[in-house]
Amino acid sequence: MRIQSIRKTIVALAVSAALVAPQAVLAGGYVDERPGFEAMFFDGLIVRPLGLGATVLGAATWVVTLPFSALGGNVGEATEKLVADPARFTFTRPLGEL
Fold first, then answer.
1. Per-residue DSSP letters for 19-50?
2. What's the rounded Cα separation, in Å, for the pair 64 and 68?
3. How far apart are CA 69 and CA 43, in angstroms?
4. CA-to-CA distance for 83 and 77, rounded, in angstroms?
5. How many angstroms separate the CA atoms of 42 and 10, rounded?
6. What is the pLDDT of residue 44?
7. How confident is the model at residue 33 (pLDDT cuts 50, 70, 90)?
8. What pLDDT sits at residue 34?
């Protein structure tokens, strides 16, 4: 019973995000520089957790591939792409600015 209610909640959030996101893109004309409620909601509830997951997976991948990166001489590039970029996307940009 509990899992079904969680599934329904996730589906409802996904549907609402799918309905709100295209409207923001197709609005055209005047664009307010400040993100609205929908953008902040979508960012905080869906995009940020995905960014956190990408950061964790990137860090794990970086650790596994570190010996190969060291042999190839591109540890800095690997660190930047696998760890720093996802972390910056997740933690340093303002909420709602995608």
1. HHHHHHHHT-SS--SS--HHHHHHIIIIIHHH
2. 9
3. 33
4. 10
5. 13
6. 92
7. confident
8. 84
